[in-house]
Amino acid sequence: MDDIDVLEDLLLLKMIASRQRRGNQEIFKTRKNHGFYSSGVNVLTKNNPELFIESSRFTYEQFKVLLNLVESYLRKYSRRNPIEPEQRLYITLHFLAHGRALRVISMKFRIGLETARSIILDTCDVLWRVLESRYMSTPSDAEWKQISEDFWNVTKLPHCLGAIGGKHVPINCPPNSRSKYLNNKQFNSVILLAACDSNYTFTFVDVGSYGNQSDGGVFKTSQFRNMISDKSMDAPNAENLPNSDLVFPYYFVADVAFPLERNIMKPYETVTDVSEEVFNQRLCSARMRIETAFGLLTSRWKVLSTSISFSPENAKKVVLATIVLHNFLVSGNVNYTTLEKRNTHNLTSVNSHDLLTANTSNQLARNLRNELCEYLNSSLV
């Protein structure tokens, strides 16, 4: 348990004792003077910045930058005294960072249970709508080439546009829907499908497929695959590989769960010689970027490791908010990934049959993989 959780639990015990004496409405009336935001956060920002980071996953300076971006969208107008944007944002970050129950959030901040729910969902929606265009827009041709160059510098894998992976996000099962969301690990979930660059920045995300989904496949029917197939993602055209006359397409790397296609390279499932082993190792080095990105995401936003207590559609808002917050922090902090990797733990991986029922490949894709394998084993790399 984080130090901030211990501090907050002590405050909660005092609040609950006070609630028993005075009742809900009286407790909520004391929010401005005795709620956690007023009584605790102001102290943290002035006297203990490390605890502020532990509580919200943001430095106070980062928090103010984020607030400046979303403040106008979070401001509410009513005859009653509305909760200010700064507090609405902090409540949401705190919920995402710790995954505490809504009732705990309600008591801690001295707000009604439905008010807490409304604030969190509204703020998550705002975070996605405002930050997506800044921190998760589809890369341009030049930006794709820079991503490829970064992968080449780090992994010596040419023309790689990103790593793709899928994970289960635990949710509370909606009524009469257990068969849809119960996955083969025996918990209810929605599936997060994502791609990232070599710096662990997410470049694409798809959330919400049923946890039990296999027929038809998650990736097979995803918008991402459609974008790859119809070339609407502005990916570069095929070019010469570095130091070579071989013209080769740009592609994403994935594990064996995915199809082998012109723009998706995956490992050899049966290794027959040393060259294929070298190919698999090089591909794995690039593919681990998405596994690490998921680990960084869940390390910082522990709500993703609990059963999200919203409907699947609202759980999707929560997941999308954590994705853009992750990208926001990565973009502004060169030490972000170094610090977080020390304490990463992954979401449960999606098994092969959960992503695709048929991952067969065509002959063209197999030929391309063989050409790339030969290149990676040559003196040109």
TrEMBL record:
GO cellular component: nucleus
Signal peptide region: none
Keyword Cell inner membrane assigned: no
Cofactors (names): a divalent metal cation
Pfam families linked: DDE_Tnp_4 (PF13359)
Domain named DDE Tnp4: residues: 165-327
Subcellular location per the Swiss-Prot or TrEMBL entry: Nucleus
Primary site of residence: nucleus
UniProt keyword terms in alphabetical order: Hydrolase, Metal-binding, Nuclease, Nucleus
Keyword Metal-binding: yes
GO molecular function: hydrolase activity; metal ion binding; nuclease activity
Superkingdom, natural source: Eukaryota
InterPro entries, per database record: HARBI1-like, HARBI1_dom
UniProt family annotation: Belongs to the HARBI1 family.
PANTHER family the record matches: NUCLEASE HARBI1-LIKE PROTEIN, PTHR22930
Record protein name field: Putative nuclease HARBI1
